Amino acid sequence: MNWLAHLYLSEPEVEFRVGNLLPDWLRPWEMVGLSEGFQRGILRHRAIDAFTDANPLVRRSVRRFEKSFRRYGGVLTDVFYDHFLAAGWSGHSTEPLGEFVHGFYDSVGEVRGHIPAEACAVLEHMRAGDWLGSYATVAGIEMTLRRMSRRLRFPFDLAAAMGVLEAQYEGFREDFEGFFPMLKGEVLEG
Fold first, then answer.
1. C-alpha–C-alpha distance, residues 18 and 83, integer Å
2. Is the N or the C terminus of the chain less surrounded, counting Cβ atoms within 10 Å?
3. Residues sharing a CB contact under 8 Å with residue 156, sequence separation 6 or more, in sequence order
4. CA separation for the pair 123, 129 (Å, rounded)
5. What's the confidence (pLDDT) of residue 190?
6. Distances in Å between the alpha carbon of 31 and those of 114, 153, 165?
7. What is the pLDDT of residues 106-150, one digit of tens each?
8. SS3 for 50-89, per residue?
């Protein structure tokens, strides 16, 4: 799952929430020595990723990509699933999506001095571009994939996968809708 799902599946404390995002931005040794709140979030992140990567519905989504995209199929699926979470947000939360994401953005200032500068920079860009809120639209997902492409070690246009999303939108959505309740049950109740 991508960042919106990680936040949705977090405890409400800001350290936990930020900790649940840190493994995507930092190397393991950069997370050593962070407070218990961050560490609990880091553990939740790893549990979410392990459950997601092993799930047959997620694997089916990854197989929906043609061979040229398979190397990035897991990452693309994570982003597409965040789109379905954002687009169907009212079915998952009584708090409006905008309030949820802006509440998170507003809380980040509390922990800026306690996390590495690289993570602070990502959080600032996330807020400035409302990355989390943008997941609700297909155009927002395309912009996200373009941004991600610039960070890859080897040049690859992840946004070209938008054609796969458009062609198989309902299939990806069905996979997500089957998978996400299982993930919530595993992480929040398990």
1. 20
2. C
3. 72, 149
4. 10
5. 62
6. 11, 22, 34
7. 999 999 899 888 889 999 999 999 999 999 999 999 999 999 999
8. HHHHHCHHHHHHHHCCCHHHHHHHHHHHHHHHHHHHHHCH
